[in-house]
C-alpha cells in the first residue's frame, strides 16, 4: 500500500428494521502501518461553517478505532464483546453514545484494505439502531 490513499467510508443505520439512507464519505488521506496496525489519516469538512475535523482510523484484526478531533470530536472503538461509551461533540452540543459491537472484519491485499464493523448504537439513551460501518482504502491515483 502506498502512503497517499483514497479512503471511502460508508455506513447504514436501521431503526425497527427500517433503513435510512446510507452515509458515504470519500477523502484523500495518508496510510501507514506500525506495530501490526494500519492507520489512516484524513480530514472531513463540515457542512456550513462548522470547520475541519481531523480523522484517524486504526485497523487491526478484531478492532476498528475512529478518532475525530476539531469541529467534531469523538473516539469510537469497535471491538466485539465490548461496549464503548463516548460523547460525540459537535458545534451544537454533545451527544452521549453507547456502541455495542457485534463483529469486526479486516481483509486486504497490497492494493486494497477493507474493514467492516456491525454494531448497535444508542444515542442519548434513545431507541437503539442496528448499524454498519465499512472502510475501503486504495492507493490514490493521479
In total, how many domains does the architecture comprise?
1
Q: Might you state the CATH topology name?
A: Lipocalin
The CATH fourth-level homologous superfamily:
Calycin beta-barrel core domain
Major sheet? 11 strands, antiparallel
CATH class: Mainly Beta
Q: Could you tell me how far the N terminus lies from the C terminus, measured between alpha carbons in angstroms?
A: 15 Å
Report the structural category. Answer: mainly beta
CATH structural architecture: Beta Barrel
How is this structure best described in words?
The chain has 142 residues and is mainly beta. The chain has a single domain (4-139), classed as Lipocalin (Beta Barrel), CATH 2.40.128.20. The protein has strands at residues 4-15, 18-19, 23-34, 37-45, 52-60, 63-70, 74-78, 83-90, 93-108, 113-123, 129-139. Strands 1, 2, 3, 4, 5, 6, 7, 8, 9, 10 and 11 form an eleven-stranded antiparallel beta sheet that branches. A hairpin with a 2-residue loop joins strand 1 and strand 2 (18-19). The model has no long low-confidence stretch (mean pLDDT 91).
Labels describing this entry:
Lipocalin, globular, eleven-stranded antiparallel β-sheet, 142 residues, 73% strand
What's a quick, concise take on this entry?
It is built from no helices and eleven strands. The protein has 142 residues and is mostly beta strands.
How do the strands and helices of this protein lay out in sequence?
Elements: E1 4-15, E2 18-19, E3 23-34, E4 37-45, E5 52-60, E6 63-70, E7 74-78, E8 83-90, E9 93-108, E10 113-123, E11 129-139
Antiparallel strand pairs: 1-2, 1-3, 1-11, 3-4, 4-5, 5-6, 6-7, 8-9, 9-10, 10-11
